[in-house]
Design a protein that fits this description.
The complex is a heterodimer of chains A (379) and B (1143). Chain A is of the alpha+beta class. Chain A is extended. The C terminus of chain A is likely disordered. Chain A is built from nine helices and 14 strands. Chain A folds into three domains: 59 residues; 228 residues; 41 residues, no CATH class. In chain A, a hairpin with a 7-residue loop joins β4 and β5. Chain B folds into six domains: 28 residues, no CATH class; 150 residues, Calcium-transporting ATPase, cytoplasmic transduction domain A, CATH 2.70.150.10; 63 residues, no CATH class; 176 residues, no CATH class; 228 residues, 3-Layer(aba) Sandwich (Rossmann fold), CATH 3.40.50.1000; 276 residues, Calcium-transporting ATPase, cytoplasmic domain N, CATH 3.40.1110. Helix content of chain B is 45%, strand content 17%. Chain B has 40 helices and 33 strands. Chain B has a nine-stranded mixed beta sheet with strand order 14-33-32-31-15-27-30-29-28, sandwiched between helices. In chain B, strands 17-16-26-25-24-23-22-21-20 form a nine-stranded antiparallel beta sheet, sandwiched between helices. In chain B, α23 packs parallel to α31, α25 runs parallel beside α27 and α33 packs antiparallel against α38. The chains are: A alpha+beta (379), B alpha+beta (1143). At the A-B interface, α1, α2, β4, α5 and β12 of A face α36, α37, α38 and α40 of B.
Chain lengths: 379, 1143
């Protein structure tokens, strides 16, 4: 006799497991909708008021519709100008200063992929690999040189189209613009590093001829002071540094492309520059802001804050605009009424549906489990 | 033989098989017409080894062979498609994955899973092969002169083997000699062929006459001397064998199928048999007949293929739109974007962006080229439109569905210990869409356990009571069952219980009194004759159990068994049949012997069986057969018209009760005539040509001679056997009909029997409830024209009724009863459309007297010609195989008649009533589950893929992706994979109780309600709209937001938007699943939480490793700190779920 092949009579095998079986009764549906409405509408109102509390002023200084003062027509024009922004309401510190570009497609596929991870992390990458990664921009002809080709470090479209308008507050300004700590710590620490072989050392620079001696004394000892950089004095801190970059003669480094913004040495040398790091995180929309710095003192209503602009970044050619935005923050960031509005809208729809459904249910209730609905008609 | 015999090339023997085997041309066969085997000498040819390998792969060739199959361009379209995609991903120009073929990962997973299944399957085959090859066999060792034990794989053509009782035969062999259990050597052996055809009854085989008496002990095999066997080439026909055996100098003897034992059969009822091996290994009949049944695909899967084409078209449109957008936008807007450096000439390549004016870009021609490139780029970006995971999910889910069907205790048959078997899990969902059921009758609707119920002898009917079918017949006519019938049954019941015997269900004592002369001697003699015929004229084989001394009857026909049991019941017990002597034991214990001189067996064309018996000194011919063939053969010399009249009347009454009737006759033969006839008959029956003709159904001398013998009959009476309805059949049929399934019963029975059984099954209803259109019996419907007229008439009447009543539901339902001969006419192309149209008006169709091929034709006709039908054929016997294979779903009843039907079927159930649960419950559940699964898998991939397309509107149609690549790859494997599969296995939209209570719920499946173009389109549309919201909403909601800690730049980047959209994709698709799910066992809920949670965990994990995602490094950590992110998730989820929730 063969063993019994009777299947086990367990709830699992017989598909009779205890299971939660929610039944969408009209009452259940109506109350759910009502509940959502009751929660969403107040949340939306809160969000909207939060957004409205944010003080934000945008000043467009280039592109169609901007005043002529700061308009430029070509890259690296170096036009200097000043813009004055009048606070329309009190702005509590910290006040964030952004630059805003429009019609600039930082999210274009060709643009986004044009970079070399390895190079940005400080590795020395072969020219072939750079060519592949950074297409269509990995080399450059030396400006004024005899047609010598220089490797770009960092290469690629993103790095070499960096926003290079210099924004600053006049010396006499009541406020100070803090441009440090504007990039993510993780980016500064892990993502970007100067090439292997880069070194720098602070040296005395009491001014005058002594500067040269103090820094040049390092030459030939610990630094190979070649034809290029010998030493660098940070215009902000006025500190002096001796520095050395590998393959300097055949490479164009970031600080060489953007001397006004990026310094070869100092606390954030070359690719450690925080404006650069922020630029490298590609924006999601063709109109975008990036943080430039922050102001630590309140700006009161009616006060005028002036910014000195050294305009180098051409937007006119692609019909874009440039603007400075100063803004305070709420607990969810900058000014954005959309989220609050959408909560109110969705909440209202829910309530409306609940009411409509409730009325229908009162007028013609459908009994649950009514088997009349099971009858089918043959076509 | 010709030149093939020459051994010119050293020791290499020519192959025994013709060239180009297994498909030799006529010339090849002409060159090598026969298979020649030398007895007791070296073979002249090379034969196949008996070492078999049914496995497809070895450890070495598995990989290449399996891969070649997995990328078969036609059979595995999807695999090839994804392989091409992965190739395209490596083209730098269009890649969106940095040249890494990421699709390869899921694709290899799919193939890996397939490979595991294939390997497991093959491993089982390897094991079976090893087991078979290593089985023990006894081969004659020429040197020792005795039989030595060796393995099956060493068995060679031409060797002698000794098979012991109950041993399995290792190759196709010819029986030379047997040692029987009895002292007298007759050369009879018995064989069980269960593994070959599934039939459990024993079949008789004989040793060759020439060698039977030559071989008595092992060493005798050498003494028979040198000889040769000339036989046909190997073939798969298991009941055919053609060959001759000749000892040099001896008489040539014909070898027929009864001299042959086939590999896989079991020897029974003898001590041993010494045999000569003729076919080995792949040449054996069992191996030759191992063919794969046709691969069936469910309608849902066919529908998917259609939908895939549409989705592909959609994909192409989207890609084209993207490419054109890219082209236009680039030319109109982007040419001035110096930061994109459009020029690619060498001179420009080295120019710094800020310093050079890029006005002189290349001509538009390059842009056109780039637009084409862009097209393929989009194609890659959205390759997920056709989901890789679909096929894996589907087969995994089907596997588990099948497991649950097999484990359903309610469709397990306790008495026979048979659970339901799923043989084609691909059709699980098809079970939920069946519109037509084609059912066999015998063994399917009925038990195929025959009971001797009634008989009429010499014009007197015996047997009281009424069958279920008989009761139904009364109901059909609206009559009440006469009291006396019920009373008679009750009276006799006591008597019946006393003499209870299997296969007998007879309530009537009077027959016993009549046997001893209560109604005159003539009646007593007639009864005695009648039962003697029953006890002798049959092909039942008695098997003697040595321990209990009991006789076990082994019959190939349950009818025969019932008749023999009936005879025993009345004191004519069949004991034995040896050496042409049959022994009966009478009720007084006396043993009576009869010499059986000839036996002409039953077959479906003859429809009768005869034996010639020597009783004392008389020669008697005993016959039984169908009335249609027996009545014309009755003698006209004696007056038996009244008797015939009475008998026919009784037989009609029996048929109405659904009983199977056979007419019993005898004839006394003239010894001289007999001698002459017998000689002729013997010559004909050993003539190979005549045998061949007979096998092919051509006119032949054997049948003609038989006709000469079987004539001039004297009528004795008729027997009536009941084939009981299976339990629960009427209820099952009623439920299936309520479910909207049309039921066709196809049977070989007479019209009356078929109608009555259909009524008993509640397939047909009394006239006042159902209009029956009968097309049978030739007469007015035997010409095409008349048949068409009748059909048109019926259709018109039905349509008028419908018009009058207003709805098809209110009209009296129609039923068609049609018989085989009419069907031949009705199936002709001119008539067929009308037949089909009318059958569509009918609730039920009953086909009577139909042949197996007509069954197939009918299934085929409905399947091919009626739009949108899904046919199911259910049967239990070899005659249903054609129909089972032709239908969309074939169901075998694993019951009495053997295994052929089961082996050809897709599902095997033990009882017809299980069909109800299989279709209404499992079928409907699985249909809905698969529909949801397929729609959902497409939906979720479209939501995921097309979101990226909407984003292209923000990126100048450049097609920049904004998802984390890791997320895309894990989407179908982790985030959305398991909840839908659990839904596919476990979800129950309507619970068991309700489904069985309201069969109408099944109608959804028949109408394709859960998966059709409309439903599919809705899902795709929903996916498209939802993806639009998912893509755009975050772009507005997240702008300028972030967590302003430490004054770092908190503004969202490209990757923030992407991660938000992707989170929404994961949540919205998973919530969508919840809204489509009805039952939530704890593990489904857990799995759901884990799936959604895995996205958050993996997103956090992946973006925390610089090496995995440079672009997205720490982005997700930053995003999680952003309150707007969470608020955005909530509002979008609610917004998108609202619609589904509301319905």
């Amino acid at each position: 006799m063969q063993p019994s092949r009777r299947p086990a009579d367990t709830p699992f095998k017989q598909q009779r497991l205890n299971a939660w079986q929610p039944i969408l009764t009209p009452t259940y549906v109506i109350s759910t909708f009502l509940l959502i409405g009751i929660i969403f509408i107040p949340v939306g109102i809160t969000l909207l008021s939060q957004s409205n509390n944010v003080a934000e002023i945008t000043y467009q200084y280039d592109g169609a519709g901007a005043p002529a003062g700061c308009k430029i027509t070509a890259n690296n024009e170096g036009k200097k100008c000043t813009i004055d922004i009048v606070a329309t309401e009190d702005m509590k510190a910290p006040v964030y200063v952004y630059y805003e570009l429009s019609n600039f497609y930082q999210n274009h596929r060709k643009y986004v992929k044009s970079l070399s991870f390895s190079q940005l992390r400080g590795e020395m990458v072969s020219a072939d690999e750079l060519h592949e990664d950074c297409k269509p921009l990995d080399k450059v002809t030396e400006v004024g040189g005899a047609g010598v080709e220089l490797k770009l470090n960092p290469c690629g479209l993103i790095a070499n189209s960096m926003f290079n308008d210099k924004i600053s507050l006049p010396q006499a300004s009541k406020w100070t613009l803090d441009e440090t700590n504007i990039a993510w710590e993780s980016d500064v620490n892990d993502k970007f590093d100067n090439p292997e072989g880069f070194k720098q050392e602070e040296c005395d620079c009491p001014g005058g001829a002594g500067v040269l001696t103090a820094c040049t004394s390092l030459c030939g000892v610990t630094f190979d002071c070649g034809q290029k950089g010998v030493y660098f004095q940070d215009p902000d801190t006025l500190k002096c540094y001796a520095y050395e970059y590998p393959e300097d003669a055949t490479t164009q480094y970031l600080f060489e492309s953007y001397p006004l913004i990026v310094y070869p040495a100092g606390p954030s040398p070359n690719v450690k520059n925080e404006h650069f790091i922020n630029w490298m995180r590609t924006a999601g929309l063709p109109t975008f802001r990036k943080l430039y710095g922050s102001i630590d003192t309140d700006i009161l209503k009616g006060e005028t804050i002036s910014f000195d602009i050294d305009a180098n970044f051409d937007v006119a050619s692609f019909e874009g605009t440039k603007a400075i935005v100063i803004s305070t923050v709420s607990w969810f960031g900058g000014k954005n009424p959309f989220l609050g509005q959408s909560y109110i809208a969705v909440g209202s729809i829910c309530v409306a549906l609940a009411v409509a459904f409730g009325v229908k249910h009162m007028v013609s209730p459908r009994k649950l489990g009514d088997t009349r609905y099971l009858v089918w008609k043959e076509a | 033989m010709g030149g093939r015999n020459s051994k010119s090339k050293g020791d290499v023997l020519p192959n025994s098989l013709p060239q180009n085997w297994p498909n030799p041309s006529e010339e090849d066969i002409k060159e090598c017409p026969t298979r020649n085997i030398i007895v007791n000498g070296p073979q002249g040819y090379l034969f196949a080894s008996n070492f078999i390998r049914t496995s497809k792969y070895t450890a070495w060739n598995f990989l290449p062979k399996f891969l070649a199959q997995s990328f078969h361009p036609r059979k595995k379209m999807a695999n090839v498609y994804f392989f091409l995609i992965s190739c395209m991903q490596m083209i730098p120009l269009i890649t969106n994955t940095y040249g890494i073929p990421t699709v390869l990962m899921p694709l290899s997973f799919v193939i890996f899973v397939d490979a595991i299944f294939a390997a497991l399957e093959d491993l089982a085959r390897h094991k079976a092969d090893d087991l078979a090859n290593a089985s023990k066999a006894l081969i004659h060792d020429d040197a020792k002169g005795s039989f030595e034990e060796t393995t099956w794989s060493n068995v060679k053509v031409g060797s002698f083997i000794k098979v012991l009782n109950r041993d399995v035969i290792p190759a196709d062999v010819i029986i030379l000699a047997v040692k029987e259990k009895t002292a007298i050597a007759e050369g009879r052996a018995y064989v069980e062929t269960k593994s070959l055809d599934g039939e459990t009854n024993l079949k008789m085989r004989r040793a060759l006459k020439n060698t039977l008496n030559e071989i008595k002990v092992d060493s005798d095999v050498k003494k028979i001397g040198h000889g040769e066997i000339v036989m046909e080439h190997p073939n798969k026909l298991i009941d055919r064998f053609k060959g001759t055996f000749e000892i040099t100098g001896g008489e040539k003897e014909v070898v027929d199928p009864t001299n042959v034992l086939l590999r896989g059969c079991t020897l029974r009822n003898v001590d041993w048999a010494i045999c000569l091996v003729v076919n080995t290994g792949l040449d054996t009949k069992i191996m030759m007949s191992n063919t794969e049944s046709p691969v069936k695909t469910s309608s849902l899967e066919l529908r998917i293929n259609v939908e895939i084409k549409r989705v592909d078209f959609y994909l192409m449109t989207v890609c084209l739109f993207g490419a054109v957008g890219n082209f236009v936008w680039k030319n109109q807007e982007m040419l001035d974007a110096w930061y994109l450096k459009w020029s690619t000439t060498d001179a420009d390549e080295t120019a710094s962006l800020h310093e050079t004016d890029f006005k002189d870009y290349n001509a538009t021609g390059d842009f056109l080229l780039s637009a084409i490139v862009q097209f393929f780029y989009y194609f890659l970006l959205m390759a997920n439109f056709v989901p890789v995971s679909l096929y894996v999910s589907m087969s995994t889910v089907k596997y588990f569905q099948a497991t649950f069907i097999e484990n359903d205790v309610n469709i397990y048959h306790e008495e026979t210990n048979t659970p339901t078997k799923v043989r084609t899990m691909a059709l699980n969902e098809e079970l939920g869409q069946i519109s037509h059921v084609f059912s066999d009758k015998t063994g399917t609707l009925t038990c195929n356990i025959m009971d001797f119920r009634k008989c009429t002898v010499n014009g007197r009917s015996y047997g009281k009571g009424i069958t279920e079918i008989g009761k139904a017949a009364y109901n059909l006519q609206g009559d009440t069952i006469p009291e006396d019938i019920l009373a008679g049954e009750a009276m006799s019941r006591e008597h019946a219980e006393m003499h209870k015997q299997p296969h007998v269900n007879f309530y009537d004592q009077s027959i016993r009194f009549d046997l001893v002369g209560a109604n005159g001697d003539e009646q007593a003699q007639a009864l005695e004759d009648f039962f003697t015929v029953l006890a002798l004229c049959h092909s039942v084989i008695p098997e003697h159990d040595e321990e209990t001394k009991e006789v076990h009857l082994s019959a190939s026909s349950p009818d025969d068994e019932a008749l023999v049991c009936g005879a025993k019941f009345f004191g004519f017990e069949f004991m034995d049949r040896k050496q042409g002597i049959a022994t009966l034991r009478l009720s007084n214990g006396e043993l009576r012997s009869y010499q059986i001189l000839e036996m002409i067996e039953f077959n479906s064309t003859r429809k009768r069986m005869s034996v010639v018996v020597k009783v004392d000194d008389r020669l008697e011919l005993f016959s039984k057969g169908a009335d249609t063939v027996m009545i014309p053969r009755l003698s006209e010399k004696i007056n038996q018209e009244k008797l015939l009249d009475d008998t026919c009347k009784h037989m009609t009454a029996y048929a109405k009760e659904g009983l199977r009737t056979l007419m019993i006759c005898k004839r006394t033969l003239d010894p001289a005539w007999w001698e002459e006839w017998h000689e002729k008959f013997h010559t004909a029956s050993v003539d190979l040509k005549e045998i061949e003709k007979r096998l092919n159904g051509e006119p032949n001398d054997i049948d003609l001679l038989a006709e000469d013998l079987e004539t001039d009959f004297r009528l004795l009476g008729a027997s009536a056997i009941e084939d009981k309805l299976q339990e629960g059949v009427p209820e099952c049929i009623a439920d299936l009909a309520n479910a909207g399934i049309k039921i066709w019963v196809l049977t070989g029975d007479k019209v009356e029997t078929a109608i009555n059984i259909a009524v008993a099954c509640r397939l047909l209803h009394p006239e006042e409830y159902m209009e029956q259109v009968v097309i049978a019996g030739g007469g007015d419907t035997n010409t095409k024209k008349k048949l068409v007229e009748k059909l048109i008439d019926s259709i018109r009447q039905f349509e008028e009724d419908v018009k009058q009543a207003g709805s098809a539901d209110l009209v009296k339902p129609r039923a068609l009863i049609i018989d085989g001969p009419s069907l031949i006419v009705a199936m002709q192309p001119e008539v067929q459309p009308y037949l089909l149209r009318f059958t569509q008006c009918c609730k039920a169709v009953v086909g009577c007297r139909v042949s197996p091929d007509q069954k197939r034709q009918m299934v085929h006709m409905v399947k091919e010609k009626v739009l949108g039908v899904k046919t199911l054929a259910i049967g239990d016997g070899a005659n249903d195989v054609a129909m089972i294979q032709a239908a969309h779903v074939g169901i075998g009843i694993s019951g009495q008649e053997g295994m052929q039907a089961v082996n050809a079927s897709d599902y095997a159930i033990a009882q017809f009533r299980f069909l109800r649960r299989l279709l209404l419950l499992h079928g409907r559940w699985n249909y809905r589950r698969m529909s949801k699964l397929v729609c959902y898998v497409f939906y979720k991939n479209i939501v995921m893929a097309i979101t990226q397309f909407w984003y292209a509107f923000q990126t100048g149609f450049s097609g920049q992706k904004f998802y984390f690549e890791g997320g895309i790859q894990l989407f179908n494997i982790a985030y959305t994979c398991f909840p839908i599969m659990l839904l596919g296995v476990f979800d129950q939209d309507v619970e068991e109780k309700m489904l069985l209570k309201y069969p109408q719920l099944y109608n959804n499946g028949i109408r394709d309600a859960f998966f059709n173009s409309k439903v599919f389109f809705h899902w795709i549309l929903a996916g498209t709209i939802e993806s639009l919201v998912i893509s755009i909403f975050p772009l507005y909601a997240l702008q300028q937001t972030g967590e302003p800690n430490d004054r770092q730049d908190f503004l969202p980047s490209l990757w923030h938007y992407g991660a938000t959209s992707f989170t929404l994709v994961v949540i919205v698709t998973n919530v969508k699943l919840l809204l489509n799910q009805y039952t939530f066992p704890w593990f489904c809920t857990l799995c759901w939480i884990l799936s959604v949670g895995s996205w958050f965990a993996s997103a956090y994990g992946m973006t925390n490793v610089l090496q995995i995602d440079f672009d997205g490094y720490k982005v997700y950590e930053d995003l999680m700190r952003n309150h707007s992110y969470w608020l955005c998730l909530l509002v979008v989820t609610v917004l998108l779920a609202m619609r589904d929730f509301f319905y």
